[in-house]
Every structure is written in structure tokens, then in C-alpha cells.
Write a structure and sequence with these properties.
Number of strands: 6
Helix content: 25-40%
Structural class: alpha+beta
Radius of gyration: 13 Å
Number of helices: 3
Largest sheet: 6 strands, antiparallel
Strand order of the largest sheet: 1-2-3-4-6-5
Order of helices and strands: HEEEEHEEH
Strand content: 25-35%
Distance between the termini: 26 Å
Shape: globular
């Protein structure tokens, strides 16, 4: 499944030289992991973000956000942010930081 290489590059740049970051292909998309836990990724032209159950539910109330559902069953605690929700780098960084806040509390794998 092709994904937006430009968005992937923007994510890499936003994370800079953060320790513990690893790239993998999961769910048929580009993903970045923090200490072995999926953090964010690119599904087609959208950003996928791991926020946990409570923050994920809250995020669904925001514009340009929908559940991450590629199999017919939404993944709880994950959201997809449409390109309109990450048009500039500050918007993208905010989503990434929200994911770091959640995933950074998870035990390393």
C-alpha cells in the first residue's frame, strides 16, 4: 500500500533525533515506533496517531479526525488525521507530541 512519502519525511523531521525511534511497515503503512511501541504513522495520505483510549475518544471530536479503521473494526485508542488537520508543521508536531505523551508512558518492548 503506497503512502505519502512527503508526510513521512515531515514526521521524521518533526521527531528530529529523538532517542528510541525506529521505522517499520505495519498495518500496510509506514510507522514510527518509540521504544518498540507504535507512535505515529502514515496511512495513504493521512497521519495515524496512537493516543490511548481516553485521549483517542476526545480527539474524535476534533475537526479532520476519524477512527483508525482499515479492517472494518476501529482500533481503539488510535485516530486518523486527514491532510487538512496537519497542513502545517506546527499542527503535525502537536499531534506527534500528543502521541509521545501517551506512548512514552508505555513499557519498552
Amino acid at each position: 500500500m503506497p503512502f505519502d512519502e512527503t508526510l513521512a519525511a515531515r514526521i521524521r523531521t518533526a521527531l528530529g533525533h529523538k532517542r528510541g525511534i525506529e521505522e517499520k511497515t505495519l498495518f500496510g503503512c509506514f510507522c514510527l515506533l518509540l521504544h518498540g511501541n507504535v507512535l505515529v504513522g502514515v496511512w495513504k495520505d493521512s497521519l495515524i496517531v496512537r493516543l490511548g483510549d481516553e485521549q483517542g475518544e476526545d480527539a474524535l471530536l476534533e475537526p479532520h479526525v476519524r477512527p483508525f479503521d482499515i479492517t472494518g473494526k476501529a482500533m481503539k485508542g488510535w485516530v486518523v488525521v486527514a491532510p487538512e488537520g496537519i497542513e502545517d508543521d506546527e499542527m503535525l508536531k502537536e499531534w506527534i507530541q500528543r502521541a509521545v505523551k501517551f506512548v512514552g508512558k508505555l513499557p519498552a518492548k
